[in-house]
Design goal:
By secondary structure, the chain is α/β, with parallel strands linked by helices. The protein has a single domain (13-229), classed as HAD superfamily/HAD-like (Rossmann fold, 3-Layer(aba) Sandwich). The protein has helices at residues 28-38, 45-59, 64-71, 80-95, 101-113, 125-134, 164-175, 194-199, 210-218; strands at 9-11, 14-17, 116-124, 139-148, 151-157, 179-181, 184-188, 202-206, 222-224. The strands form 2 sheets. A 7-stranded mixed beta sheet has the order 5-4-3-2-7-8-9. Strands 1-6 form a two-stranded parallel sheet. α8 links the parallel β7 (184-188) and β8 (202-206). α1 packs antiparallel against α2, α2 (45-59) runs antiparallel to α3 (64-71) and α4 packs across α6. The chain is globular. GO terms for molecular function: hydrolase activity; metal ion binding. Keywords: Hydrolase, Magnesium, Metal-binding. InterPro entries: HAD-like_SerB, HAD-like_sf, HAD_hydro_SerB1, HAD_sf.
Amino acid sequence: MLFDNHKMTIKPYLAIFDLDETLIAADSASLWNAFLVQKGLAPQTLLEEEQRLMQAYAKGTLDMNTYMEATLQPIKGYDITKISILVEEFVEEKIKPALYTDALARIEWHKKRGDHVLIISATSEHLVKPIATMLNVEDVIAIELETINGIFTGNTKGTLSYQQGKVIRMKAWLANQETEFKGSYGYSDSINDLPMLDAVDRPFAVNPDPALSLHAQVNDWTIMDWRHDNNILR
């Protein structure tokens, strides 16, 4: 598993949440791309290209480097501060209304137990970190973006937190913690997160896609569906 027994501070469990379609009723990167088109900062063709790439994501065959190269073009050459201001508006306008109330309740349930909450996402950090801040979650693993002198280059850096990359990044994060966790919970909707869910002690398939739903049923994992009526924060 992901844990060793030589850390100093003890907390009950680590609760690991995917973001898109798990905590929110949408894909945050897709919403962001549409937001950029709406603002006139990206061409309509970006949405057409992204839709094609997301079809591969649903099948578990997406090349994430290709996706990031295409979708980071609109912010290439922009100052971090300017994009941060746009992201604040985006989170308030597009993300907050898409939050699952059951997701908020589950995060709160873990916090009341004294558990440590971590969001890990295959979306880039300039979106995930502000969303996590809104959720009062301090720890985030997301796709890291390269900047030079405060300007986005349009490139990523390090291991992409996608599929097996989530486990690699998670192990690196754990190695830097002073906390010994008794065990772990993991929550995701996507078959792409099977490596992450296999790595935790207590996997939960949340709003699962068909492939993950089948895997969860075969392996007797708990399935949670937060997509019911009146469960989105408005």
